[in-house]
Amino acid sequence: MSSTVVSTASSVIEEQLAAVREAIASRTALSRVVLTACGGSYAVMLPGEYFLGTSAAVLEAVALNAAEFTSRGSSRVDAQTVVILCSHSGTTPETVAAAQHARERGALTVAFTHELDSPLAQASEYVIGYQHGAEKSESYVAPVLLLRLIARILDDREGASFVEAIDAVAASLPNLVPAARAAHTEAADRWAFASRREPLIYTMAAGSNYGTAYSFAICLLQEMQWVHSAAIHSGEYFHGPFEITDVDVPFIALLGLDETRPVEQRAVDFLTKHSDKALVIDAAEFGLDGIDDSVRGIAAHLLFNPVLRTYADALADHRGHPLSVRRYMWRMDY
């Protein structure tokens, strides 16, 4: 099985996940979880911070950019801390440095990466190798595996009961994801054709979906399409950003299913009243009715990610600008 298609077999990933769970359980004084990465990998961490923040009574949780994590040099990163890191290639210098910094402080380090022999994998005590590529299983991509790990931490340290429900979500994704993408194919093509010459597109969300909006803005639009963008938190929209709303200003707004849906809905109500170029994507249409109520909200971002990729693929096609094209990234030192 080629590492360029699928990084790790599912059976091996299950073993890795079990080993990490056991290692974290052995740290009886564990009191905080730090999730750290850069770019799109950092965005993957944000729903995890939300899940911990809304479900943990004892554990502290924070998500930080890897360079900031290391620069802060917090004395609270110690043997009572588990530091979870992510880098697709495993070569992101800031994330590798963050792993080394965390280990020097005595923290338990867990790396998510596609490359098991990468510098990040070598710098971390435990590694979970997620799948990627055309032959991947939607059950074994990074956001899903991170959610499964956090469910185990919450069950073990907080006496919660999320593992069974989250694992059921993971098992359902190979059916849910293709269906959701197919349901949006025509809408994505229409939106992409209409938006192909837009110089700027804002994204907006809150709660466990904000990371997805952030990733779409900085990775898909700015990095891969060279389209100006900014991710706006729906709760912050009325504290400045809504002043730039106009009939010809394009937005992509997400409506999730977690506790912050009313926050997102308020922003969407204003946006759709004052802009003719508002694209609203509602997780209520993702077919998640069969998902356990306790995890339906946190599960929505797992569908937003591939659905938004459908829109990005269509935009790249209509702009004649492949998502693989870069101006600076990987082409020079920086």
Give an overview of the whole structure.
The protein has 334 residues and is of the alpha/beta class. The protein is built from eleven helices and nine strands. It has helices at residues 10-26, 39-55, 66-72, 93-104, 119-123, 142-158, 163-195, 210-225, 261-274, 293-299, 301-319, and strands at 32-37, 60-65, 81-86, 108-113, 126-129, 202-205, 231-233, 251-255, 278-282. The chain has a five-stranded parallel β-sheet, sandwiched between helices. It has a four-stranded parallel β-sheet with strand order 7-6-8-9, sandwiched between helices. Helix 1 (10-26) runs parallel beside helix 6 (142-158) and helix 2 (39-55) runs antiparallel to helix 8. The longest helix has 33 residues, at 163-195. It is globular and about 55 Å long. The protein starts with 9 loop residues before the first helix and ends in a 15-residue tail after the last helix. 51% of the residues are buried.
Produce a short descriptive summary.
By secondary structure, this protein is of the alpha/beta class. It has 11 helices and 9 strands. Helix content is 49%, strand content 13%.
Percent helix range? 40-55%
Beta content comes to 5-15%
**What's the mean pLDDT score?**
96
Largest sheet report: 5 strands, parallel
Structural class: alpha/beta
Q: Radius of gyration, Cα only, in angstroms?
A: 19 Å
Number of helices: 11
Task: Give, in spatial order, the strands making up the sheet with the most strands.
Answer: 2-1-3-4-5
Low-confidence stretches: 1-5
Distance between the termini: 33 Å
Secondary-structure element string:
HEHEHEHEHEHHEHEEHEHH
- Let me know the number of strands: 9
Spatial shape: globular
